Automatic annotation (TrEMBL):
Domain Hydroxymethylglutaryl-coenzyme A synthase C-terminal: 176-439
Organism: Rhodosorus marinus
SUPFAM superfamilies cross-referenced by the UniProt entry: Thiolase-like
Protein name as annotated: Hydroxymethylglutaryl-CoA synthase
Top-level taxonomic group: Eukaryota
InterPro entries cross-referenced by the UniProt entry: HMG_CoA_synt_AS, HMG_CoA_synt_C_dom, HMG_CoA_synth_N, HMG_CoA_synthase_euk, Thiolase-like
């Protein structure tokens, strides 16, 4: 196991959300398309009082307040995000305000960006720093945060918002560690999802292409990870739980099914198939296998019992906030920690990180010692249930208003402060040359 690991974790999501069932009616699509078809319940979104800096800052402030972190003892702070609001200045430097107040300016690290993968890159950088001769004994802090919004159309219900702050250390011994030599990566040059329109918040997305790129990356990472770890068994031999980057829940189900398809191809006795119904998929050409609906459905069915055991404990947060891009994988880790608490001691969690364009890694985390205090203080479910559900008309108005004001200077936000959670950092104004100023509730 790595010496460095996770000491504490904190999540943040906005106080307002829209129900996917309401959005189905509003968009005039068939009932069940977003809730059953995509597997999503609610979607978190921000109005004009919150931006990527404010949500990351709120996550850090929550970590400090709730987990008792001393900001003067942070030696490295990295941010993973793809929500760009400045082409030069990193979000990390905006978070330096908090550290400077604690008298700490000696802090390495800036931002990592590549779609939903930036948070994982920041985690890997931080681990490398801690296990290098440059480490000075202090903590590492990784913050991942994104605001995912799409223009009207089929991708819009796959938006979301969230941030997560993760504290890394070696002393005291961290309860959540990384298995050495259990990491595999796959990267390629693709145009499945990208953001070439610098004056527009929305990505350019080829939905179908993103799905097959994701599954192709998953295949490669899983096969490489098995080789690297010398594992010849199935996914349940490799780990006890699995957490995936979650664009929408159906994709997580399809990903786990794809892993079982890999298991089947490696050893047909490793899956549940008493009547041999899966044998016809053995010779499907690889390229066709990514779009073969019959194959996909068969393996979603085959994997459903194991999914319940291995994936469901961590899949519920993303169903209720949507795709939080860089924060998606890491807030799902927080969800499984809250759900299972100390039952996780000694257990291995398989993690899959995917960022379009594309960068992906699979690795294994192990809970090595009690996490009871960490998990019981997260209160994720409690906060999810306390949110304000708004109607799709309001959600759409907010997005339209933000479209018009995107990149505008000399503006003051219109959203009432009372609509935010208490103790939230929020935007006060953007001045005439684009500098952002924040306050808190
Ligand atoms: N009841 C139940 N299920 C339904 C209904 C209904 N009334 N209507 C449709 N469905 C099902 C479909 O059968 C389909 O299920 P399947 O995938 O199991 O076959 C599912 O709902 C989605 O319907 P589609 O018609 O395939 O959806 P569409 O093509 O309109 O959009 C997409 C889906 C492409 C994912 C779109 O939302 C998108 O582009 N999202 C953004 C891209 C994305 O998130 N990619 C993921 C990886 S990259 C990243 O993280 C950004």
């Amino acid at each position: 196991l790595s010496e460095a690991g996770i000491l504490a974790i904190e999540t943040y999501f906005p106080r307002q959300c829209v129900r996917q069932a309401d959005l189905e009616k509003f968009d005039g699509v068939s009932s069940g398309k977003y809730t059953i078809g995509l597997g999503q319940d609610e979607m978190a979104f921000v109005d004009d009082r919150e931006d990527v800096i404010s949500i990351c800052r709120t996550a850090v402030r929550r970590l400090v307040a709730r987990q008792g972190v001393d900001l003067s003892s942070i030696g490295r702070l990295e941010v993973g995000t793809e929500t760009i609001i400045d082409k030069s200045k990193s979000v990390k430097t905006a978070l330096m305000d908090l550290l400077c107040q604690a008298g700490n300016t000696d802090v390495e690290g800036v931002d990592s960006t590549n779609a939903c993968y930036g948070g994982t890159a920041a985690v890997f950088n931080t681990l490398s720093w801690m296990e290098s001769p440059w480490w000075d004994g202090r903590y590492g802090l990784v913050v991942c945060g994104d605001i995912a919004v799409y223009e009207r159309g089929p991708a819009r219900p796959t938006g979301g918002t969230g941030a997560v702050a993760i504290l890394f250390g070696i002393n005291p011994q961290p309860p959540i560690r990384f298995e050495i030599n259990a990491r595999a990566t796959h990267m390629e040059h693709t145009y499945d999802f990208f953001k070439p329109r610098l004056g527009c918040e929305y990505p350019t997305v080829n939905g179908a292409e993103t799905l097959s790129c994701y599954l192709r990356a998953l295949d490669r990472c899983y096969q490489r990870l098995k080789k690297r770890t010398g594992s010849s068994g199935s996914v349940s031999d490799l780990a006890d739980y699995a957490v995936f980057h979650a664009p929408f829940n159906k994709m997580v189900k399809k990903s786990f099914a794809r892993i079982r398809y890999n298991d089947y191809l490696a050893d047909s006795t490793s899956v549940v198939d008493p009547e041999g119904k899966l044998s016809k998929f053995r010779d499907v050409p690889l390229a066709d296998s990514y779009t073969n609906k019959e194959l996909e459905k068969a393996f979603v069915t085959e994997s459903s019992a194991l999914y319940k055991k291995m994936v469901e404990p961590g899949d519920w947060l993303a169903k209720r906030i949507g795709n939080a891009y860089t924060a998606s994988l890491w807030s799902s880790l927080a969800a499984i920690l809250e759900e299972k608490g100390d039952e996780l001691i000694g257990k291995r969690i398989l993690m899959f990180s995917y960022g379009s364009g594309m960068a992906s890694s699979m690795f294994i985390i192990r809970v090595a010692s009690p996490i009871g205090k960490l998990s019981s203080s997260l209160l994720i479910r409690e906060r999810l249930d306390a949110r304000r559900v708004v109607d799709p008309e309001h959600f759409t108005e907010v997005l339209e208003r933000k479209e018009k004001k995107y990149c505008a200077f000399g503006v003051e936000p219109a959203q009432e402060l009372a609509e935010l959670w208490s103790e939230t950092t929020c935007l006060e104004r953007i001045d005439d040359i684009g500098r952002r100023f924040y306050t808190s509730t």
